[in-house]
Backbone:
């Protein structure tokens, strides 16, 4: 006859086995160039995590915002773009938990180096200059 603790142990094993056999759903994937040609196709893409594929030369516009009572950005919206240097993939987690970049669409959680963000001043011959530096994590090579 089975004892209550035997039933509990068997239940835990069954739940663990079921959890291990369940695979996470595949992330939706979009080619950035396709979204540029037909922007309406990406209207619902931010509802769940997804992957964007970039080809060398793809240009991603960057919107820079700055708010302060004592300063303003001049020009207010300078034209900026990130340009893909190589084929890469960007995973965007719909939960707001992050953006990850990789050269392999299956290896987003591995990185050679960590990312960094910094703000500071630098002396230039024309006077002090504000420096904003963004360094993304360097992905592992496939």
Residues:
């Amino acid at each position: 006859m089975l004892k209550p603790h035997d039933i509990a142990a068997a239940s835990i094993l069954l739940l663990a086995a079921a959890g291990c056999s369940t695979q996470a759903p595949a992330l939706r994937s979009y080619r950035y160039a396709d979204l540029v040609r037909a922007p309406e196709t990406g209207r619902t893409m931010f509802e769940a995590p997804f992957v964007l594929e970039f080809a060398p030369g793809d240009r991603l516009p960057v919107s820079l915002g700055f708010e302060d009572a004592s300063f303003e950005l001049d020009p207010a919206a300078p034209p900026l773009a990130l340009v893909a240097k190589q084929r890469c993939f960007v995973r965007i987690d719909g939960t707001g938990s992050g953006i990850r970049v990789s050269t392999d669409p299956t290896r987003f959680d591995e990185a050679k180096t960590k990312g960094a963000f910094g703000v500071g001043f630098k002396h230039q011959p024309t006077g002090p200059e504000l420096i904003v530096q963004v360094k993304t994590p360097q992905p592992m090579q496939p």
Observations:
- Residues 15-110 form one domain.
- Residues 65 and 136 are 19 Å apart (CA to CA).
- The helical segments are 4-21, 32-37.
- The radius of gyration is 23 Å.
